[in-house]
Every structure is written in structure tokens, then in C-alpha cells.
């Protein structure tokens, strides 16, 4: 009886370890941080031809990557971003750039989206398309995947903060509140925030330690602590298995 239960216990222990050690959104937010964003040429909905660097030189930029045919996260992302920024009365030193990553989107599509959110006449917001979207999203580390079954992109809700030098200073994955957006606005304005974990300063119990120079994560002490219960469970089950076999032989 005990022998038949050993394999399921091992599988359960392994599955728990695998789930707990999956990279979190925090890991995704570290990808390509402190690297220069690709200076994509963009066309605004008013017809103006410009680029990301030119916009950032005037004011730091918060980039929202969306597409107009999205029936998922894009609209909630823009709606929450709009509402959260309206609550931020203390800092206006930024612009929001909403860029479509869907090559099917044209200027009329983006103009309609801006009108839908009542942002077409808001001086803090720009809606745009680019013919260099692949190079742009590659420089950000954004990887939307086309789902042919539902005819939609599978993608994260992503905001990217770009400072006036064209460097990515912060990324936010998922729907975030006004406090986190304040931190992003501070980062793109090169404001020191003491609550940030400094790049390269690894905490003792981190699951992964990020190296901003190589752009890679390495296993940390926290990973060992998470794995320890699974390892001990497997060792215990191996001992029980040997004990059961020895008892059967006797």
C-alpha cells in the first residue's frame, strides 16, 4: 500500500516546487531595464511624424503597448492608467505614449481609441503607430503571441517608463495603482527612490538575483529554501520505500 503512494507524493512535491519557483511579474519587469529603448519613428494621430527619443527629450514618457482590436486587457489597462494619473496632482512632468503593436492598426483606429477614452485632446497623451514595432518591442522585452484560435494576441498589460535620455528606467506588468505609477514617474525623472532594491544588491533570501550588467537572473538562497521541503519530502519517501522493500524481503 505504502509503496503505491510513493510516486504520487513525489510528483506532488515536485509540482509544488515548480509552481513556487516560476518567475514572477517582478522578474519580467527587470528585463531590459537600464537599456536604451529603440528610437522608433512614430506617427501621431494628428499626422505628426516624430520619434520616441524626440518625445522623451521634451518630457519623459510612459509607454503603453496595446492594440485596438483587443477584447482583453488593453482597455482596462488604459482606463486604470487614466484614472490613476488623474489622481496624481503633484507631478505633470511626463507624457503618455499609447503605441499599437498590431500592424493592422492605422491612424484612424488609434484616433478612434483616443476618442473612446476621451483622450484625443489631452496634452499629456499621445496615440501613435509605428512601422518599426518589432524592433521596438524587442528592445523592451515585450513578447505578444498571436493566438490563431481566438484571433487575439496573448500579452501582458505593460507600461514602460523612458527617461529623457531614452533609457528604460522602470516597467510595470499588470494593472497597477497610482502609488506605483508615482514611482514610475519619479524614475523617468531620475528621482532617487530609497525604497527601490538597488541593482546588483542581492538580498539574502531572494529566489533569483538579477544582474543588471548581464541582464540575467541567477538562483539565490531563497530558491534553496523553497526547494528544501520538496527535497526533504523526496528523501523521506526514498527512505520509506527502502524500509518497505526491506520489510517485504523479510
How would you explain this protein's 3D organization?
The protein is α+β, with helices and mostly antiparallel strands. It has 2 domains: 1-24 and 199-250; 34-197, Glutaredoxin, CATH 3.40.30. The protein is built from 8 helices and 11 strands. The strands form 3 sheets. Strands 2-1-5-4-3-8-9 form a 7-stranded mixed sheet. It has a two-stranded antiparallel ribbon with strand order 6-7. Strand 1 and strand 2 form a beta hairpin. Helix 1 runs antiparallel to helix 8 and helix 4 crosses helix 7. It starts with a helix and ends with a helix. Residues 9-25 and 195-202 have low confidence and may be disordered.
Q: Biggest β-sheet, characterized?
A: 7 strands, mixed
SS class: alpha+beta
CA radius of gyration is 24 Å
Strand content: 15-25%
CATH class of the largest domain: Alpha Beta
The portion of residues assigned to helices is: 40-55%
In what order do the strands lie side by side in the largest sheet? 2-1-5-4-3-8-9
Keywords summarizing the entry:
Glutaredoxin, 8 helices, alpha+beta, single chain, two-stranded antiparallel ribbon, elongated
Lay out the secondary structure:
Layout: H1 2-20, H2 25-30, E1 41-44, E2 49-51, H3 52-58, E3 61-66, H4 74-86, E4 95-100, H5 107-116, E5 125-129, H6 133-140, E6 145-147, E7 152-154, E8 158-162, E9 168-173, H7 178-188, E10 208-211, E11 216-219, H8 221-249
Parallel strand pairs: 3-4, 4-5
Antiparallel strand pairs: 1-2, 1-5, 3-8, 6-7, 8-9, 10-11
Helix pairs in contact: 1-8, 4-7
Short description:
By secondary structure, the protein is of the alpha+beta class.
